[in-house]
Design a protein that fits this description.
single chain; PTS_IID_sorb; 172 residues; 73% helix; 8 helices; mainly alpha; membrane; transmembrane helix; 0% strand; 2 domains
Length: 172
Amino acid sequence: MNAIASVAQGFIGLFTAGGTTFTGWVTGIIPQVVCLLTFMNSIIKLVGEEKVEKFARKLTSIAILRYTLFPLIAMMFLGNPMAYSFGRFLDEKYKPSFYDSAVSFCHPITGLFPHANAGELFVFVGIAEGVKKVAGSYSDLAVRYFIVGLIVIGIRGIVTEKIYFRLAGIKK
């Protein structure tokens, strides 16, 4: 009988943990995303939707900029997870590759701009502590991590675009 009670308690514990996670979202990330969306939409309205769209179209017309500079701007100004909303300025066919680039840049940007992905700062800090013990400073690591991150997201974006186009039967 004790085993059945333990299994039942463990089973309900799963849902309790899920409820705790959901409560954390409702009181944490959801209001943040709503506020950031409101702020972003306000800025777009103030600047003018046509100007923002024109700037985004110009910036994203070149593949390497679409998958390096555009995700960089998105992550720097909006942070994770709000940065993905910049995909609204892209044609549907480019959204999967943009998302891949932006997601892949979450960690590399953290060393120089911790606000961009504060929830994952521990990854950079953990690596940096080891480097700091050996080199005395981790600012060089942060810069290198950032540069390599930009290179990697450019490659990932272009490769993902090619794969997606091929799978979706899209001609460039």
